[in-house]
Fold EamA domain-containing protein.
Amino acid sequence: MSLLVFLLTSLIGGIGSPLIKFTLDYFPTITFVALRAILAALLILPFVCKGLFRLKTKQIKYLFYANALFAGNWLFFAMGIQKTTIMMGQIIYLPTALIVAIIAYIFLKEKLTKDQIFGLFITLLGFLMLTYGSVVSQDVLSFGTLAGNLLVVAGLLAWSFYTVVSRKISSIYDPQVITFFNFAVTALIALILIPVDFRNGLPGLSELTTSAIFSLLSVVLFSSILFFFLYQWLIKHTSAFISSLVLYPVTIFASLAGIIFFNETLTLNFIFGGLLVFAGVFIATSHQYIKTNFKHAD
């Protein structure tokens, strides 16, 4: 059962970026984020009503500030993925756990292990190679554009800071309540910013096709709700380590989708840079766990 859920989570996570990129062909960026967040919040509202009534005003304020980082992640990623490749966008998010460890080291004074420092060095080498390809080669079908990659990096930083902050709120609030506020706050911020989309006039809703509506609903149901619940199931029924491994097949599935459906191309420089990022993240986040468990097995 755990293996089946792991594979299903990986597959659903892998189609997330391609679905978002495809849907953004039909909707202005901020409008898309607003609709995605509103629909997701409405869908899970019946399951969190009781928890919402127990919250105090001070708690709601704290949740708002924390979830604003979540909103930043969605907004920056939606803006960036239009200007870069799915392969590049997914690889940029791969070292999330490592970035979280660095943020915790800087702001919470948590210690970094030797594996994390060495893994960080390898990961940075990989990113330098990918950045070089983005700036110098101008191969947009492989590396994307520098502007798009920087926007995705901004999304990564917002998500990483949110992850650090959510350590505290996850021990206080129910996960479903946190998820609802993720969506609700994102919807609020996106609605405030939505006039930016209307600078060139209101988008014509009559032009929306069945494909546009279906793709938006798919993003909401699969990438916004189902992936979260499956990921939470993995954490609860396996371990944090096993659930963290989902990032690897997610990146592979997303990259395959980018190549098949968006005509993205793999170059030797991209493969080598990507492998360095994979290796660095593995050393920093998984190597010590495997080494320790092998010792216990002996």
The chain has 14 helices and no strands. The chain has a mean pLDDT of 88. Residues 210-237 form the longest helix (28 residues).
